[in-house]
Amino acid sequence: MLIIGSHVGFKKDSQLLGSLEEALSYGANTFMFYTGAPQNTMRYPIDTELTKKAQALIKENNIDYSKVIVHAPYIVNLANNNDPEKYQFSINFLKEEVKRCEALGIKYLVLHPGSHVGLGIDVGIKNIINALNQVLENSEVTILLETMAGKGSEIGSNFKEIKKIITGIKNKQRIGVCLDTCHLNDAGYNVADFDQLLTYFDEIIGLNYVKCIHINDSKNPQDSHKDRHENIGYGTIGFDNLIKIIYNPKLESIPKILETPYIGTNPPYKDEINMIKNKKFDQNMKERLQKQV
Ligand code: FE
Ligand code: FE
Ligand code: ZN
Predict the structure, then answer these.
(1) DSSP per position, 119-176
(2) Can you count the helices (H) and strands (E) in the chain?
(3) What is the per-residue pLDDT for 109?
(4) pLDDT tens for residues 235-275?
(5) Which domains occur in the chain, in start order?
(6) Comparing C-alpha atoms, which of 275, 286, 234 is closest to residue 4?
(7) How far does the centroid of ligand 3 lie from the alpha carbon of residue 235, in Å?
(8) How far away, in angstroms, is 264 Cα from ligand 1 center?
(9) Residue 257 Cα to ligand 2 middle (Å)
(10) Of 234, 260, 80, whose CA–CA distance to 152 is shortest?
């Protein structure tokens, strides 16, 4: 069965219930959210009542809650320890984020491995491993390392770097990978032949580590190291290639999450999920949503 959704909001007053309602309005059967704003670390406590209400509704709607994803804010950087205080802040924040996920009953937390900012890849990887081993020690949550586009000094734009991190993690049960089609393309991988890419991934890391896949088109060509997401079918990857990835039998049980850009002030997810379900590209979507107020 296709498990498809998008990233959705998470607001102080509605929390998981609001996120679920947004996802349902898109016709999704899964979703991903940040437990606050993606770009900052301001976080509110998790409301138990709202969580219970949402979990009941999730069941009612036949959503497999084990496939609902949380994404850590992208300013958490575990790779650089030039400023020991900042490094420790990132570790502590992530520990708190794991606790929030546990309070929400969430199983998977997506994380950008980090940027070494001049320290070099090897030191960066060492820092990530050291941090994650502290965070994962008694964790009930599995952290998914996201494959990155390789912008600046980002670590994790190739499978061998991800493999090195995983090798250093003590609690192997609590580490996994999140693929991102835009990032893979921008990092230099050929996503048009995804079967071959998955075979290669399996050789280097092991397909059993993949627990989530972000479905995005890219504004830039393969190997551009840019990381600018495009709406489904409007970018350099193209609709047919994305459909092949989404319906790849090896990824059937893996939740697919859209992180494509809004069109004006309108979310594209309902339309994109429709396109994906119908396997038919809608070339008028952008124009239509642009006009919608
Ligand atoms: Fe991400
Ligand atoms: Fe992503
Ligand atoms: Zn991205």
Answers:
(1) S-HHHHHHHHHHHHHHHHTT-SSEEEEEP----TTBS-SSHHHHHHHHHH-S-GGGEE
(2) 10, 10
(3) 98
(4) 999 999 999 999 999 999 999 999 999 999 999 999 999 99
(5) 4-291 (3.20.20.150)
(6) 275
(7) 14
(8) 21
(9) 8
(10) 80
Element (H, E) at 212: strand 210-215
Distance (Å) from CA 73 to ligand 1 centroid: 9
CA 214 vs. chain centroid, Å, equals: 6
Length reported for the chain = 293
Asked if 254 contacts 211 with a C-beta cutoff of 8 angstroms, the reply is: yes
Instruction: Find the 146 Cα to ligand 1 centroid distance in Å.
Output: 6
- Listed range (34-48, 51-65, 112-126) with the worst mean pLDDT: 34-48
Instruction: Give distance in angstroms: CA of 33 to centre of ligand 2.
Output: 12
What is the distance, to the nearest Å, from the Cα of residue 196 to the centroid of all Cα atoms in its chain? Answer: 22
Return the number of other C-beta atoms located less than 10 Å from residue 115's C-beta. 19
* 35 close to 97: Cβ distance less than 8 angstroms: yes
142, 175 in Cβ contact below 8 A?
yes
**Looking at the DSSP assignment, which residues form a beta bridge with residue 180?**
214
Please determine, for residue 293, whether its predicted confidence score (pLDDT) is greater than 90.
no
Asked if 181 and 242 count as a contact pair (C-beta separation under 8 A), the reply is yes
| Assessment of whether the complete model's pTM goes beyond 0.85 | yes
- The DSSP secondary-structure symbol of 29 reads S
Do 15 and 57 contact (CB within 8 A), yes or no?
no
Pairing of strands 69-71, 30-33: parallel
